[in-house]
Fold this protein.
Amino acid sequence: METLFLYLFVLIILFIALSRPALGFWLSLSLFFDPGGFFMGYFDSNLIGPVNVSDAFFGIMTIAYFVRIKKGKVKCDRKFLLFFRYCVFLIVYFIISYGYIIPVLNGNDTFRLFLLKERNTLYGIFILWFVYYFANHGLIVHYKILVYTAAVVLSMYLLGLVFGGYIVPITSFSRYVGEDVMRIGMLSYGLFQAVLPLSLVVLMINPHLRKIPVRKLLYFASLLLVIVYLLTLTRRTYINLIATIVFAVFVINKVIHIRKGIRRLIIALGFVFVVLTFLFPDYRKYSGDLYRDVYLLLSTGEDTRGRSDYRLSRTGDMEIVKDYIREKPWFGQGFTWMNWDEKVERANKGDRFARAWDAAQEVPVYYMVFSKGIIGLLVYTPVYIIIIYSLVSMYRKIRKYNLSLFQNHQIVLLFSLFLIVSYILEFTVKAYSLYGDVGSPRFMVNAGLMFSILAYLNKEYEIEKDPDTSTSYR
């Protein structure tokens, strides 16, 4: 019955893609990331043999692209083509070196398994191209899908927590060993975590974004997302939450004066506090305690319980990581067959390599050198150089142009500021994911959006002189 439902659902999305390719593409892209974790939690996601739901949605994205391209192609920006070609080179390097040569040299012939387990990374290069193409034809559909998905999924999730009878799958475990404080989280956020920085931008420069649709629903979804974040009792999530607000205020203030926007932000945060107190009174105290732990860890190296963190001290399992790096510094360990569950299980049983792999993934740059070596680090670094250069170019153009330019294309201003804030987070508080995410579908989505918006900004003078020269970003 579950498989039949999945087949029917996939066929509905396919029909939408054939009749309305833009809507079908953005829907498929959202579902590819499993918002809410429904496929992961409730269904056997394999449809036929090794083909799973993500494969099906990637296939629908591809179909939507070929249906839409018959109606008109998009001239690619030179910077995007440079980035795209380098990413193609990275994928080839990733397959040949990381997936085949290094494992064989290490005595592991796992190439077929590599192609099966890493196919989402291989999809990434196509997703980059597809997102760039469809974003050039408009971002409103993508924006609305993000907002509606977040509002619906987060509402169902919190209703399940408050009244029982969970609709959205949850994961829960103890925050501290031997204590009853529980961390509660979702299996997957999909792409809708974007609603928080998007809502901060809209909230703080509201007068300049009055044409943005479903703004109240965006605020509602963001309110729910912040509450969900607080319930996770995860230090990393708490740091990301504060950093998102701080960086959003900083970036937006550089573009436009936002004194009234900051007042609106303070009121919104106060409202979050009231709702959290009313619905989950215990977690108001837990949240405060966790923020004290974060402060003490960063300032003294130990939390309120006198415990340190190996990710900050670089001790414990990080010593094992350093040993493996010293053994194979140039090309790293290569592809490893264990998935996350197997890795954790083996690490808990004392498997030395599993412990090293688990620890390396938590620390900036270490995982890249551990898995792909110094050569891999050097090969992947130009991707970030191109992105940083492009972000600086985007920022300068936004500051240079009169905001009146964006009045007919406010979605461009919204996503421009959103992307700048998102990438600042990636290079600071989310630095632990640097290099590990390069080439992943999620990484490629933001890259495609960024280069699409840059292409628009490069054409802005033509658009300003003759609005009929472009119909993008409706």
User: Anything to note?
Assistant: The beta strands are 46-48, 51-52, 170-174, 182-186. The chain has a mean pLDDT of 81. Residues 16 and 24 are 5 Å apart (CA to CA). The longest strand covers residues 170-174.
